[in-house]
TrEMBL record:
Residues 20-280 form the Glycoside hydrolase 131 catalytic N-terminal domain. It comes from Lentithecium fluviatile CBS 122367. The keyword Signal applies. Pfam families: GH131_N. Residues 1-17 form the signal peptide. Gene3D superfamilies: 2.60.120.1160. This is Glycoside hydrolase family 131 protein. GO terms for molecular function: hydrolase activity. InterPro entries: GH131_N. It comes from the Eukaryota. Keywords: Hydrolase, Signal. Transmembrane segments: none annotated.
Length: 285
């Protein structure tokens, strides 16, 4: 069908007529304080501990630039968690069993569900922190799309020891499908210190399917999966950051005393943007 022909073309179409609907690439001149302001690229209020500001949690590196940051003179940003990274939704019921700090597109820059309707490609690059490593005995979400009604995640990119697993993929990035359909594995690749892993995830919010492109370092993105069915309904917001779960599956998020104290852990992000792919354009380099 003509409807899907652009997916076949996409591996040879290089930014034919790129339309970006949300650009979260951080200018090389940006400083941490800008991330606390109402006009920040990312929501200044969510998702993080109540007592900390994003300016306390973000570290920048203009000399450590990912694939799709270079052409716009952007820099990478490391998102960190510490003992204060306890999110309390609505200011109540702090999630003491979890540590969280996640950048989300500023709603003012992503209005009318622009990132979760039509056919969109989510771009980002991700790298382990060299100086603030994760504790891979734990499960971490590092990128996810959460439904607007908070009843599930349409996609989740995880690392560490996935809950209920033997830890065989603890040094990998594992992309899982909708949590309401059993979190089916979609794609997996290594998560190596010193190396950016670049992703482009084409999401057709009309047809409910996803296709993954991926590369490392400065290599152009390469198609890694076919077009795979995945329920993408429910809109919501993308999260980019560190969401550290307790090691024990099924633990109540309000339970205290089960996350070790004295932590400082981070993940480095670059090249975050959402592209309109309705006409077949998927930027690969
Ligand atoms: C955005 O998505 C939410 C959740 O699906 C929906 O309630 C809302 O009406 C949508 N807004 C627009 C402008 O389409
Ligand atoms: C890593 O997590 C495990 C499980 O919570 C904990 O026993 C261990 O002390 C942690 N290691 C470090 C270095 O914090």
């Amino acid at each position: 069908m003509v409807r899907h022909s652009f997916y076949l073309l996409s591996s040879v179409v290089l930014a034919r007529c790129q339309t970006i609907v949300f650009d979260g690439r951080v200018p090389a001149t940006a400083v941490a304080a800008e991330f606390d302001a109402a006009d920040s690229l990312f929501d200044p209020d969510f998702t993080k501990g109540q007592s900390v500001s994003f300016s306390d949690l973000l570290l920048f590196s203009a000399s450590d630039v990912s694939l799709l940051d270079t052409q716009v003179n952007a820099q990478s940003v490391e998102v960190t968690i510490n003992d204060d990274s306890i999110f309390a939704p609505g200011g109540a019921n702090p999630q003491t069993a979890v540590r969280r700090a996640e950048l989300m597109p500023n709603p003012a820059l992503s209005a009318d569900n622009v990132t979760t309707t039509g056919v969109k490609t989510l771009h980002f690059s991700v790298k382990p922190s060299a100086d603030r490593p994760l504790n891979t005995s734990h499960e971490y979400l590092v990128v996810f799309l959460e439904r607007a009604d908070f009843t599930g995640n349409q996609i989740s990119l995880k690392t560490g020891t996935l809950l209920g697993s033997d830890g065989a993929t603890k040094d990998r990035l594992v992309l899982l499908g909708n949590t309401n359909d059993g979190s089916t594995p979609i794609f997996s690749t290594a998560f190596e210190e010193g190396i950016f892993t670049n992703f482009a995830m084409v999401m057709d919010f009309n047809q409910n399917n996803i296709q993954v492109f991926q590369s490392t370092g400065s290599d152009a993105l390469v198609q890694q999966t076919e077009l795979l069915p995945n329920d993408l309904s429910g809109n919501g917001a993308f999260h980019f950051g560190v969401n550290k779960n307790p090691i024990d599956p099924g633990v109540d998020v309000l339970r205290t005393g089960i996350q070790e104290a004295g932590i400082l852990e981070g993940v480095v992000y670059g090249g975050i943007f959402v592209e309109d792919s309705a006409d077949g354009t998927v930027t690969l380099s």
